[in-house]
């Protein structure tokens, strides 16, 4: 029997009335920031087994971690297996919300994403984040721990749908996770660097800026003789780096005060533009939701055919 979901919308984002959204901080609270950490298991021992039309992703276009989950879902062949809907990019103290034109919540009719968390844990007092993975069967949040969501989408649904790309092959998992463990903090710290008054214009570059510049140089060198980060195989490492780089170039470093433009790194620039040319990457990249006003994004639509020549084996 099909149930009609009432379309509900939150009122317009209003910081003056509701304040800005802040991460919940409670002294001596030992719980993790991303509190829901359920896992999908092949045999269903966790209470969550792989199945078509059971799970739904709540995402926001500005968020790199939400985009990572969407790209992973699509490359795992799950676009018609795991649903997805978008919250409004604008956020006030109430957190993420459903508004036009991104549309209503098609699963529960929530107006605020917080309602999904309250339905799972009464009077939820933690961080309401995206991506959020929702279980239709039990009407609860499975997880808002984005690394686990990515891995489960990439690996746990093979009995339901053959993946288009094996993004997390066992032989490369340690390398994939190691890359993310040092690259993700570098790009998150770049945002902190951009927030410093006066930027990086001082005579002595900060440790954050030095780490970033070293990483960009190393990536550019590594990509001279390999198509993707770990050789000829597209992996989660590439998905993660793309989502960081596209935001770094068009928002964090839009004034080039932290680092040179990506187009000054020949191989890194060609690599990331090739990723952008793939449907799963391009269709989930909404520049209007995160790029700085006036940012020139036209270069991202010009892929380099030279990358196709680097179909080399892994190291």
Can you put this structure into words, describing what you see?
The chain folds into two domains: 15-155, Glutaredoxin (3-Layer(aba) Sandwich), CATH 3.40.30.10; 170-309, Glutathione S-transferase Yfyf (Class Pi), Chain A, domain 2, CATH 1.20.1050.10. The chain has ten helices and four strands. Helix 2 runs parallel beside helix 4, helix 5 (173-195) crosses helix 6 and helix 6 packs across helix 8. A four-stranded mixed sheet has the order 2-1-3-4, with helices on both faces. Strand 3 (132-135) and strand 4 form a beta hairpin. It is mainly alpha-helical and 315 residues long.
Summarize the structure.
This protein is 35% helix and 5% strand. The protein has helices spanning 15-18, 64-75, 114-120, 146-155, 173-195, 207-222, 236-252, 266-277, 279-282, 287-290, and strands at residues 55-59, 83-86, 132-135, 140-143. Helix 2 runs parallel beside helix 4 (146-155).
Write the layout of secondary structure elements.
Blueprint (H helix, E strand, L loop, with lengths): L14 H4 L36 E5 L4 H12 L7 E4 L27 H7 L11 E4 L4 E4 L2 H10 L17 H23 L11 H16 L13 H17 L13 H12 L1 H4 L4 H4 L25
Parallel strand pairs: 1-2
Antiparallel strand pairs: 1-3, 3-4
Helix pairs in contact: 2-4, 2-7, 5-6, 5-7, 6-8
CATH fold-level name of the largest domain: Glutaredoxin
CATH architecture annotation of the largest domain? 3-Layer(aba) Sandwich
Largest sheet: 4 strands, mixed
Terminal-residue CA separation: 53 Å
Say which CATH homologous superfamily of the largest domain is assigned.
Glutaredoxin
- For the secondary structure, the number of strands is 4
Overall 3D shape: globular
Assess the beta-strand content as a share of residues. Answer: 5-15%
State mean pLDDT (0 to 100 scale).
92
What's the total helix number? Answer: 10
Indicate the CATH class of the largest domain: Alpha Beta
The ordered string of helix (H) and strand (E) elements is HEHEHEEHHHHHHH
Helix proportion:
25-40%
Helix/strand structural class: mainly alpha
């Amino acid at each position: 029997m099909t149930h009609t979901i009432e379309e509900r919308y939150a009122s317009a984002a209003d910081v003056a009335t509701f304040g800005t959204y802040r991460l919940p901080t409670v002294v001596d609270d030992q719980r993790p920031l991303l509190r829901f950490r359920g896992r999908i298991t092949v045999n269903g021992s966790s209470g969550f087994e792989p199945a078509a039309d059971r799970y739904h992703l709540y995402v926001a276009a500005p968020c790199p971690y939400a985009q990572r989950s969407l790209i992973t879902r699509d490359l795992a062949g799950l676009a018609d297996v795991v649903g997805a809907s978008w919250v409004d990019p604008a956020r006030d103290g109430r957190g993420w919300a459903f508004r036009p034109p991104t549309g209503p919540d098609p699963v529960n009719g929530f107006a605020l994403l917080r309602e999904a968390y309250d339905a799972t844990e009464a009077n939820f007092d933690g961080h309401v984040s995206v991506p959020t993975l929702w279980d239709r069967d039990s009407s609860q949040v499975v997880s808002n721990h984005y690394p686990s969501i990515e891995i489960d989408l990439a690996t746990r649904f093979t009995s339901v749908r053959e993946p288009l790309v094996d993004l997390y092959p066992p032989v490369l998992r340690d390398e994939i996770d190691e890359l993310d463990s040092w690259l993700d903090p570098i790009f998150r710290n770049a945002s902190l660097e951009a927030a410093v008054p006066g930027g990086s214009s001082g005579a002595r570059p900060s440790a954050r800026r030095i780490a970033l510049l070293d990483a960009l140089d190393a990536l550019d060198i590594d990509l001279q003789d390999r198509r993707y980060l770990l050789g000829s195989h597209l992996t989660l490492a590439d998905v993660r780096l793309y989502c960081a780089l596209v935001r770094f170039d068009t928002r964090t470093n839009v004034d080039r005060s932290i680092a040179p433009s990506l187009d000054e790194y020949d191989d890194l620039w060609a690599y990331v533009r090739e990723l952008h040319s793939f449907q799963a990457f391009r269709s989930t990249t909404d520049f209007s939701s995160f790029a700085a006003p006036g940012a020139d994004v036209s270069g991202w639509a010009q892929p380099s055919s030279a990358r196709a020549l680097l179909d080399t084996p892994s190291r």
